[in-house]
Amino acid sequence: MVTADLWFDPVCPWAWITSRWLMEVEGVRPMRARVHVFSLALHNQDREVDPWYRAWLDQRWGPARVVAAAERAHGGEVVRALCTAFGTRLHVDKRPVDRELSLDALAEVGLPPDLADAAGSTALDDVLAAGNAAALAPVGEDLGVPALHLPGPDGEVVAFFGPVVSPTPRGEAAGLLWDGVRLLAGTEGFSELKRARSRPDTAPAGGGPRRRSARVR
After folding, report:
1. pLDDT of 13-55, one tens digit each?
2. 191 contacts: CB under 8 Å, gap ≥ 6
């Protein structure tokens, strides 16, 4: 059984698709995905970004903070379910980022509503910063999410930004993409494979960034 670690911010549509792909892979390959929270707003706090992206980020601190608070109080096993609850509401149901979003996501996974207070608090931003650093250390500080860590042929961690794909591969198609990612992970010296998107942006709705580049910083 192979374990893959995925860092993603629930507000990021591209990372959401990657997370759904990994859930598909679990059904067709002997692998298990562990999910960790990442904060795009914190990652870009002191960076120069486009004004529209700054405005988008400034409205979306909450979900990652709520997940961090839930993990602190209830352990890492709640992260995957809570990120899924947030992501479904944001990218499938097209909900806005507000307190009701947090309350509904928490209720779905049986967590106390007072955790929603963390959305407006900086108390756990240092914890999020440490998680961000762990995600990007083997990938590259100038990248973002989705950040995927998986074991290489010698057991060492191999990490990538991505894969960025839309729509979500299903069934055996998901498994074949996983096979390809593992093949690349086992190729010594491999670092990048990229092309411009040649199809319309089909990332799920929900106010997600729609950029010419698929890179979400």
Report:
1. 999 999 999 999 999 999 999 999 999 999 999 999 999 999 9
2. none
Question: Which homologous superfamily does the CATH classification assign to the domain defined by 2-185?
Answer: Glutaredoxin (3.40.30.10)
H helix runs in the chain, sequence order: 13-26, 40-43, 51-58, 62-74, 77-87, 99-108, 125-136, 171-185
Instruction: Report which secondary-structure segment, H or E, holds 2.
Output: strand 2-8
DSSP state of 213: S
Reported pTM: 0.88
Q: Could you identify the residue written with the tokens 């010594």?
A: 188
CA distance 185 to 194: 15
Domain boundaries, the chain: 2-185
Q: Of 33, 147, 22, 19, nearest to 92 (Cα)?
A: 19
